[in-house]
Design brief:
By secondary structure, the chain is mainly α. It folds into two domains: about 210 residues, HUPs (Rossmann fold), CATH 3.40.50; about 80 residues, Tyrosyl-Transfer RNA Synthetase (Orthogonal Bundle), CATH 1.10.240.10. Helices cover about 50% and strands about 5% of the residues. The chain has 13 helices and five strands. The chain has a three-stranded parallel sheet with strand order 1-2-3. A two-stranded parallel ribbon has the order 4-5. The structure holds tryptophan.
């Protein structure tokens, strides 16, 4: 076991960067789909994790709650097991180099590529007048990753197109300013087994904005109240109707939260109409409550000490900035900007 005093500094360890938007609530969808994976990656990689508040302001957003949601997201990540002794955890806007590199990378990013991004095409339809920030969203994401010269980026499949553009931006920048070398490594996606958790409505991917989630901080009672009306196999109208576990979202969730023997019983009881969907949900609720209990406890205790979370984020920003400032010195130099006589005022 390696004792780390300074996170992110082990030579020879591949570096990981990933970001998550400050939606406020972490739910079982982000947990199973991303955060659990981040927690495991900490053992083998030099990890940098970022709450991307600057990305969160590219659409319409609530400025009154942004800071609260940002702290809540960080609290949730810590509760899930992101360990500040091993990894760097920080808030994007606390490291101004992200914005600076974003501007510089804009100069090698073709507008046509940005307009082709499916997320942009989708989201821009919601605006009468499309903000430039929405178009440039992927350039900021490229800056996030390249600032730390990350090797690997764990992302969901909805972000692979953005990551491909990051690679393209790195290639173009290297060709233009790299002096024959690849200053920016091309970051590779780290795709784990695709975990796309469906919402409780069984209609769409679990997402806070759709209100179809179970939050990691939900109380046992809230978990049950949300699971009870959740969509199951429509063929099971009464408990006498046999069902097909494979098409049931509740069965799918059992596979993440219940032990193998229970999963087998659940499938058998469903196929043989040996119990009703509510019985099945009760077992799931109990196992979910058991699994999420420790995370919830940690989160509640962190919520009582917000100043501790803020300290962790401040230390994270300092560690991140140490790397980011070094990259920016190189980038400014290679792009031909006039050197500063004295360093910038600390901010
Ligand atoms: N765009 C990502 C998402 O919505 C979040 C993100 C921002 C990100 N910067 C990143 C992910 C850098 C990975 C690496 O999920």
């Amino acid at each position: 076991m390696l004792a780390l005093t300074e996170p992110g500094n082990l030579p020879g360890m591949a570096r990981i960067f990933s970001g998550i938007q400050p939606s406020g609530e972490l739910h079982i969808g982000n947990w199973l789909g991303a955060v659990q994976n981040w927690v495991n990656l900490q053992r083998t990689y030099d990890c940098i994790f970022c709450v991307v508040d600057l990305h969160a302001i590219t659409g319409k957003y609530d400025q009154v709650s942004l800071a609260i949601r940002t702290r809540e997201m960080a609290t949730g990540l810590l509760a899930c097991g992101i360990d500040p002794a091993r990894s760097v955890l920080f808030v994007q806007s606390h490291v101004p180099e992200h914005s600076e590199l974003q501007w510089l990378l804009n100069t090698v990013t073709p507008i046509g590529e940005l307009e082709r991004m499916t997320q942009f095409k989708d989201k821009s339809q919601r605006f009468e007048s499309v903000p430039a920030g929405l178009l440039n969203y992927p350039v900021l994401m490229a800056a996030d990753i390249l600032l730390y010269r990350a090797d690997l980026v764990p992302v969901g499949d909805d972000q692979t197109q953005h990551l491909e553009l990051t690679r393209e931006i790195a290639r173009r920048w290297n060709a233009e300013f790299g002096n024959g070398a690849d200053y920016f490594p091309e970051p590779k996606p780290l795709l784990t087994e695709a975990t796309r958790i469906m919402g409780l409505d069984g209609q769409a991917k679990m997402s806070k904005s759709l209100g179809n989630t179970i939050g990691l901080l939900d109380s046992p009672e809230e978990i049950w109240q949300k699971l009870r009306p959740a969509k199951t196999d429509p063929a099971r109208v009464t408990r006498k109707d046999p069902g097909t576990p494979e098409v049931c979202n509740i069965y799918h969730l059992h596979r993440y939260f219940s032990p193998p023997a229970t999963i087998a019983t659940v499938a058998d009881n469903c196929r043989g109409a040996k119990w009703g969907c509510l019985d099945c949900k009760r077992v799931l609720a109990d196992n979910m409550i058991l699994a999420l209990g420790p995370i919830r406890e940690r989160a509640l205790s962190l919520q009582e000490r917000p100043e501790m979370v803020d300290e962790i984020l401040a230390d994270g920003a300092t560690s991140a900035r140490r790397i980011a400032a070094e990259t920016m010195r190189e980038v400014r130099d290679r792009m031909g900007l006039m050197p500063r006589l004295r360093g910038a005022l600390s901010s």
